[in-house]
Amino acid sequence: MKILNVSQIRELDQYTIQYEPIAPINLMERASEAFADWFVARFPATRTVKIFCGLGNNGGDGMAVARMLINLDYQVEVYVVRYAPRESDDCAHNHRRLKLLINPTYVEKPQDIPAIRHNEMVIDAILGSGLSRPTEGIVKTVIEAINRAPATVISVDIASGLYADQPNQPDDVIVEPDHTVTFQLPKLALVLPKNGKYVGQWHLLDIRLSRRFIDQARTPYYYTNPEEARLLLRQRDKYSHKGTFGHALLLVGSYGKIGAGVLASRACLRSGVGLLTVQVPRCGYTVMQTAVPEAMCLPDQHEYHLTGQSDLPGQAFNEYSAIGVGPGIGQSPESVSMLRNLLQAVRKPVVFDADALNILAQNRDLLGLLPERSILTPHPKEFERLTQRWENDYDKLEILQDFARRYDVVVILKGANTAIATPEGEVHFNSTGNPGLSTGGTGDVLTGVITALLAQGYDPVEASVLGVYSHGLAGDRAAAEHGQIGLTASDVIENLRWSL
Questions:
Q1: Long-range contacts of 227-235 (CB under 8 A, 24+ apart)
Q2: Chain centroid offset of residue 427 CA
Q3: Do 65 and 95 touch, CB atoms closer than 8 A?
Q4: For residue 373, what are the CA distances in angstroms to 295, 406, 409?
Q5: CB atoms within 10 A of CB 327
Q6: Model confidence over 374-392: pLDDT tens digits?
Q7: The model scores a pTM over 0.70
């Protein structure tokens, strides 16, 4: 699913109007009906609904929604925030239609702002996605009143005061909704971490804008939804065998951190790899053989750290279908040497996680040895160590895209709406997952998942997008069963069902 910028969204509306064809006011009606249907399905007509409308098309949406809710016996109050001398044509049309049912209240000064109570609903339709300057005057005052109110707040399309695809300043005043209901396609602002309190839970409504325009539109930003994840998942042939699905190698663990290797190994096996070999320090041999009997285990020559050397015969690095390195390995000199030897020897994509990333950050010369199209899975602090500090989420995206292009790698920047940057400059945002995944070991699980997919022949970008989506979905299933607070990494592994 594409994420378009404000200019493209405006062009999409106009293209739909011209080639469907449909009158602009009827397209506004279609969007308002979709919002009203969403609202009615979730909130009964037992609470007063206060709708704050601006003077542009977002305000026109709010007025149309008000009319529809009134006709469904909701107790509706409409407040028109007069911040400009005139309305847009479509807003004025819906204003006239609304006045046949109720008389709106006009807000021109602070005294006109109503009291908002805890058992009421607020619909924010003041400013839309075309906003290009900070809120000020009466609009700013109204937004501050909404944010102080104890009511449930829902923004139409985007929170008033929030830019759709550029950074806000720290002192900007923005509505802080409980829900944002947006239309047709996600907006970039909705998937960026720092905007969380200006988005709440967001919901996407299809209002049948031109599919042809969307297919032809060019953008570096995408959002992975269930339909696209299902298209990536390959079906297994009846006559396949364990050799069909690859042989993965995991280089994991150090004294006191063998559990990270266990989690990565179990996740790798649960994600369909045909064969798995795990190399661990000698101290982890019994643990690994006992906890993961399905895996072959290579005990390292070192008792406590990985050197990459084993007394038992194993394959050369390049003979494995895929390699994952990092969970629990620590940053000892032995582990640094092991990683350097791996980078000098391997000629295929490798999955780098955890301490492997920290070693790369401390030894920048190793970045130039990264095999092309390898996969790096940092959380934000690990990525900052690899690169530099950023000013805001938009600056971070540029740094992310530049890093992926410069080193010809896929970078999975973990977090809510995990961002996956490709060597081609694209960024794929994930739609699954929940705060319960913010617990130790879930990153090790993701490494195992992606290594397994890479071993099965998935392209590194496909493995990353599908792996992150499936890992988040398993987390959602686990949270539904155990709750977010008590969720563990093992719960995620048990919910990797691969039925999307």
A1: 228/1, 229/465, 229/466, 229/469, 229/470, 229/473, 229/500, 230/500, 232/458, 232/462, 232/465, 232/466, 233/466, 233/498, 233/500, 234/456, 234/458
A2: 10
A3: no
A4: 26, 11, 4
A5: 33
A6: 999 999 999 999 999 999 9
A7: yes
